[in-house]
Design brief:
Blueprint lengths: L4 E3 L2 E2 L1 H13 L6 E7 L12 E2 L12 E2 L3 E6 H5 L4 H8 L14 E2 L8
Antiparallel strand pairs: 1-2, 3-6, 4-5, 6-7
């Protein structure tokens, strides 16, 4: 068993030990926590928060509205694998640092847990 780094300069050997006892010795699943990445927004002003598909045949054509918020999973498994919370959150974001839309990695629907 290695030393689990919690934050810079800090470790938690007992945390890793207890996770391993539960999950390895007793076969229990790792705990997964769902974190909100962004709240949904009513972009088209219709009073509901949902995704509207693009309609290229409309005059003028309408773009796709992505109104739903998104979440991401980060729990014991990711922590033990050494994944950093902020990096997982950033990868799952719809926008990059400049505000441009990008491919989301690890984003999930906040209600269903389905990948986006």
């Amino acid at each position: 068993m290695g030393v689990l780094i919690v934050s810079e300069g800090k470790s938690c050997v007992s945390c890793e030990y207890s996770i391993n006892v539960r999950n390895v010795k007793y076969g229990l699943p790792y705990r997964t926590y769902i974190w909100e990445g962004a709240k949904g927004k009513d972009l088209n002003g219709d009073g509901t928060i949902n995704n509207e598909p693009a309609n290229p045949s409309a005059v003028p054509p309408t773009p796709e509205y992505k109104e739903e918020g998104w979440c991401f999973a980060y729990g014991e498994k990711e922590w033990l694998e050494g994944k950093v919370f902020e990096e997982v959150k950033t990868a799952s974001d719809l926008y990059d640092e400049e505000g441009d839309e990008k491919v989301q990695i690890g984003a999930i629907n906040c209600i269903t847990g389905a990948e986006l």
